[in-house]
Design a protein that fits this description.
CATH topology of the largest domain: Butyryl-CoA Dehydrogenase, subunit A, domain 3
Structural class: alpha+beta
Bound molecules: acetoacetyl-coenzyme A
Distance between the termini: 30 Å
Shape: globular
CATH superfamily of the largest domain: Butyryl-CoA Dehydrogenase, subunit A, domain 3
Largest sheet: 4 strands, mixed
Oligomer: single chain
Strand content: 15-25%
Number of helices: 10
Order of helices and strands: HHHHHEEEEEEEEHEEHHHH
């Protein structure tokens, strides 16, 4: 086992790091306050090759692996997790096409993302169906060889700003997960409209909104997989995307650690830098060791996926562990900053708010434990 990254991977890290520090981080606080969507910044990420990096070369993309994608995500997240979520969710939105699309569907839906700046969204969650994917209600009916979608998707990252949606609905609710179908839909199609934009606690630079489908007619050649295969397409997508959330958490946690180390050396109490106190040192040590373990879990899961091996268990290990570690690291960073940490003038309260969402989206950490336990129990 070799943890040494290749020259190209180190160069990728360097590009992403420079972009995060020079262009993302200086603007993070403003976008956090305004809740505005940083379209120009995201476009810039696309221009320098830090977006959609996993689109295969056959369709005009860079064809990088999930490991490389995670390396980029970690660096960008150091600058701002909200903006990075917006950037990486286009990967998630396109993943069902990569997982289940035909050659023709891949060529039609992936290639445009390599030629011009575009955004995608993954429309799975509904008002009444979050963890329980099989309980979704978005109705799919058949009409003249097409499918008609009716229903509302909620908490959709990039909702309202995306050009393409991958969307899941049910042809027959009585069939539970076996009734679910997946589609790829142009967001500007008739019958698709953005709903309410959410006013979030953290990750405020990412757009989270409802997406409403009203008699939206989708041609049959936009179904991904066959009728009833949508649930598995969603699960296979999440297996491949959860390491990215882990990478996001590692980057954010690393920022918390870096801020806490710098502040603890500068802040004096009892005529001594607080970094000299064991109580502070133990918190820093825990952050460092947990984040390192989280990074290795992330790399391992990503590498298994890149090798085409079964990785659902390891994706859930990484997502759950890394996001819990980031939550602890950011909470401890606020503690180390003391009263200042609680104030919006300092960077760490934003990190803590941003971290919380990571324990919730792409499957709550309780759901990750369900996935893990089922695998361990052989179910
Ligand atoms: N790969 C392939 N097949 C899978 C699978 C996987 N990972 N997991 C389950 N399946 C199959 C099962 O083998 C089973 O197959 P059969 O038809 O042969 O029986 C079928 O799918 C049903 O599986 P389960 O019985 O395990 O299904 P369940 O209803 O108990 O649900 C769950 C399982 C893990 C709880 C699932 O519903 C889940 O992952 N929930 C969380 C949803 C989630 O992560 N949402 C995130 C939204 S996206 C987001 O947040 C993005 C963002 O904003 C950034």
């Amino acid at each position: 086992m070799d943890f040494q990254l290749a020259e190209e991977q180190l160069a990728l890290i360097e590009t992403a790091r420079r972009f995060a520090r020079q262009e993302i981080a200086p603007k993070a606080q403003d976008f956090d306050r305004s809740g505005e969507f940083p379209r120009d910044l995201i476009r810039r990420a696309w221009e320098i090759g830090l977006m959609n990096e996993m689109i295969p070369q056959a369709y005009g993309g860079l064809g990088l692996g999930l490991l490389e994608s995670c390396l980029i995500t970690e660096e960008l997240s150091w600058g701002c997790a909200g903006m990075t979520t917006s950037i990486m969710v286009t990967n998630l939105g396109l993943m069902p096409v990569m997982v289940a699309g035909t050659e023709e569907q891949k060529r039609r839906w992936l290639t445009p993302f390599t030629m011009e700046f575009r955004i995608a969204a993954f429309c799975l969650t509904e008002p009444g169906s979050g963890s329980d994917v099989a309980g979704m209600q978005l109705q799919v009916s058949k009409h003249n060889g097409s499918y008609i979608l009716n229903g509302t998707k909620r908490f959709i990252t990039n909702g309202g700003v995306a050009d393409v949606h991958t969307v899941f609905g049910t042809l027959d609710r009585t069939r539970q997960h076996r009734g679910i179908c997946a589609f790829v839909v142009d967001a500007h199609s008739k019958g698709v409209r953005p709903g309410k934009k959410e006013d979030k606690m953290g990750q405020r630079a990412s757009n989270t909104a409802e997406v409403v489908f009203e008699d939206c007619e989708v041609p049959a050649d936009q179904m991904l997989g066959r009728e009833g295969e949508g649930f598995k397409v969603a699960m296979q997508t999440l297996d491949r995307s959860r390491p990215s959330i882990a990478a996001l958490a590692v980057g954010l946690g690393q920022r918390a650690l870096d801020e806490a180390v710098a502040y603890s050396k500068e802040r004096k109490q009892f005529n001594t830098p607080i970094s000299e106190f064991e109580g502070i040192q133990f918190m820093l040590a825990d952050m460092g060791k947990d984040l390192h373990a989280a990074r290795l879990l992330t790399w391992h899961a990503a590498q298994l996926i890149d090798r085409g091996q079964e990785a659902g268990l390891y994706s859930s290990y990484a997502k759950c562990f890394a996001t819990d570690a980031a939550m602890r690291a950011t909470t401890d960073a606020v503690q180390i900053f003391g009263g200042y940490g609680y104030m919006k003038d300092y960077p760490v309260e934003k990190l803590m708010r941003d971290a919380k969402l990571m324990q919730i989206y792409e499957g709550t950490n309780q759901i990750q434990r369900v996935v893990i336990a089922r695998r361990l129990l052989g179910r």
